[in-house]
């Protein structure tokens, strides 16, 4: 596997689109100056991927930050990779088409780089996927995918889908390695992407990670994010603090050994901090 060399390094999705291995997530960051400042700082520092969602309620702020950052850093729109997601309440065919238009108006974009079905709400996601496939075929989205889909959700979707999802964004960290799901996605050329890669801070006193971090002269967060990349998983840690945005991205000057990777892999306990996709009905 080719290991990402820098913040601009990309993986190639099964439709040929290049997606950055590393990005900034803005989950639960409220609209306003803090959000705009964080996104702009990340882009100035070298981030090229920003991940938002309709339910986060901050697409307009992300859009403003993107517009300002492009101008201030002399970048082109195609230099950035922007992701958003359709929420459960809009998982119908017409509803998804309307939700996408709302998202694009808030972001102020003509084309979205990646659009995801946010959760596999039973009986709803196939109609949404049909709408998303049409938006993709019309050239309004460069890549399409899902989020929080387990193997059986993917199998069900793919029975009727014209297009296999290009990405599956799921909770993924050393306590939840989802090895069977990861293997399934690899078999079907679906790029796995991690949300909550740092387990909302719950791993920052883990003795194994502490020992490896000490040996490498890195923070535990940096060790985990590097582990993501070396496992072939795209990652989008969230932060609004400039020093943390920079620290999270400073993971391209070292490598974890195969022994260190295995020690981290062994921390798995199938433990979630987010909802179980099979029991999430919002």
TrEMBL record:
Domain of life: Bacteria
Residue intervals passing through the bilayer: none
Record keywords: Oxidoreductase
Occurrences of domain NADP-dependent oxidoreductase (ranges): 33-269
Record GO terms (molecular function): oxidoreductase activity
Family matches, as InterPro entries: AKR, AKR5G, Aldo/ket_reductase_CS, NAD(P)_OxRdtase_dom_sf, NADP_OxRdtase_dom
Gene3D superfamilies reported for this sequence: NADP-dependent oxidoreductase domain
List of catalytic residues: 56
The keyword DNA-binding is assigned to this record: no
Site location (Lowers pKa of active site Tyr): 85
Sites where the protein binds substrate: 118
Family note: Belongs to the aldo/keto reductase family.
Name the record gives this protein: Diketogulonate reductase-like aldo/keto reductase
């Amino acid at each position: 596997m080719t290991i990402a060399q820098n913040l601009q390094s990309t993986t190639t999705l099964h439709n040929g689109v290049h997606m950055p291995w590393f990005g900034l997530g803005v989950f639960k960051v409220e609209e306003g100056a803090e959000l705009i400042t964080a996104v702009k700082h990340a882009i100035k520092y070298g981030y090229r991927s920003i991940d938002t969602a309709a339910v986060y309620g901050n697409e307009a702020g992300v859009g403003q930050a993107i517009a300002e950052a492009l101008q201030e850093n002399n970048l082109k729109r195609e230099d950035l990779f922007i992701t958003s997601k359709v929420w459960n309440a809009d998982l119908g065919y017409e509803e998804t088409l309307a939700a996408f238009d709302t998202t694009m108006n808030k972001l102020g974009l003509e084309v979205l780089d990646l659009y995801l079905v946010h959760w596999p709400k039973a009986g709803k996601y196939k109609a949404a996927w049909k709408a998303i496939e049409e938006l993709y075929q019309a050239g309004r989205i460069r890549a399409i995918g899902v989020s929080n889909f387990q193997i059986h959700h993917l199998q069900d979707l793919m029975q009727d889908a014209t297009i296999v999802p290009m990405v599956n964004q799921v909770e993924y960290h050393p306590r939840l390695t989802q090895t069977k799901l990861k293997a399934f996605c690899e078999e079907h050329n679906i790029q796995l992407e991690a949300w909550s890669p740092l387990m909302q801070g719950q791993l920052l006193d883990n003795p194994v990670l502490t020992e490896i971090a000490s040996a490498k002269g890195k923070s535990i967060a940096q060790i985990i994010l590097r582990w993501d990349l070396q496992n072939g998983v795209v990652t989008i840690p969230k932060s609004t603090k400039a020093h943390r945005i920079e620290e999270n991205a400073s993971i391209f000057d070292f490598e974890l050994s195969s022994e260190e990777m295995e020690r981290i892999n062994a921390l798995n306990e199938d433990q979630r901090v987010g909802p179980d996709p099979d029991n999430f009905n919002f």
